[in-house]
Amino acid sequence: MELWFSEKHTRNVKLSIKVDRQLCSMHSDFQRIDVFESKEFGRFLVLDGYMMLTEKDEFIYHEMMVHVPMAVHPDVKRVLVIGAGDGGVARELIRYPGVEAIDLVEIDKAVVDVCKKYLPQTACGFDDPRVHVYYQDGMKYIRRHENEYDLVIVDSTDPFGPGEGLFTREFYGNCYKALKSDGVMVNQHESPFYDNDALAMQRAHKRIIHSFEISKVYQAHIPTYPSGHWLFGFASKKYHPLKDFNGARWERFGIQTRYYNPELHLGAFALPNYVEEMLYEVEAER
Questions:
Q1: Which residue positions form the known binding site?
Q2: By the 8 A CB rule, do 133 and 126 touch?
Q3: Which GO MF terms are attached to this record (predicted)?
């Protein structure tokens, strides 16, 4: 008998992956957590039936969340990460010796525990002494911080369930206040391809541009995410992701990456026309 994991991307489209075995299935106080093993994608994490990451393609997402802002901001010392209970963002951040502290706020401790046990490839980021984990609601945590962080990374789940509050105008405004005068925020921006995902992307972008002087969108190809076409938001008080980008400085870190590179950094901000039109629609409403 064959076992398959299937995730609906729309009412008419789904992604299916053949499963060798199920390693974990549990209900936390917040959501259902599953870990499966497959021949094609290795182990993968599922929350409430939605794919979060696979061992085969997670490097794309995490590299683009971290290295893009780190190649723009010249002196990141304190970082706030909201979500990211799998540890992948922390894993990429600890590769920078200049980063002094990484405060990671995850609402569901069970996600961290499961990833440490079953997904050590990503969860190894928790082992660094600079990483401090707080098991709290990210919305409540950030309200208490002002002018404290050089970089805020919002690695939230989709805009419903436990992650719903991380897509509000109030939340992005609090991120702005938590940043120093030259701070940068990066968040996952959903996909522009399917209608419901595109609406969520537009809502997030609309709310971010109300708070930040600079707000740009960039993209990556992530095979297991809906449509494979995924967007990220870069928002800043001072630095422009292209005008202030310093590829030569980033290369001096000597970080070996599998997806990100300085040439790709520039190209990632060159968006298809249909995406530019969606962004223009909400920017014109300012």
A1: 31, 62, 86, 106, 137-138, 155-158, 162
A2: yes
A3: spermidine synthase activity
In order, the DSSP letters of 25-78 are EEE-SS-EEEEEEETTTEEEEEETTEEEEETTTHHHHHHHHHHHHHTTSS---E
Structure tokens at 183: 């701070």
173: which 2 tokens? 């405004």
Q: Using alpha carbons, list the distances in angstroms from residue 142 to 105, 198, 228.
A: 9, 27, 31
CB 259 within 8 A of CB 220: yes
- Residue type present at position 152: V
Q: Which residues contact 240 (CB under 8 A, 6 or more apart)?
A: 72, 214, 216
Q: Two tokens at 107?
A: 């609402």
Token pair listed for 90: 């922390």
For residue 97, give the DSSP letter. T
Residues flagged as binding site for spermidine: 62, 86, 155-158
- Whether residue 179 contacts residue 150, with contact meaning beta carbons closer than 8 Å, is answered with yes
DSSP, collapsed to helix, strand or coil, labels residue 99 as coil
pLDDT digits (tens, 9 = 90+) for 17-63: 999 999 999 999 999 999 999 999 999 999 999 999 999 999 999 99
Residue pair 79/151 in contact by the 8 Å Cβ criterion: yes
Given pLDDT bands bounded at 50, 70 and 90, which one contains residue 166? Answer: low
Binding residues for S-methyl-5'-thioadenosine, as ranges, are: 31, 106, 137-138, 162
pTM: 0.95
d(CA 35, CA 25): 7
For tokens 């660094």, the residue is 128
Residues annotated as catalytic (active site), given as ranges: 155
Please, how many CA atoms are within 13 Å of residue 129, restricted to the half-sphere of its CB?
1
Find the DSSP H helices in the chain. 58-70, 88-93, 109-118, 120-123, 138-143, 169-178, 195-209, 247-251, 262-268, 273-283
Tokens of 238: 């001072």
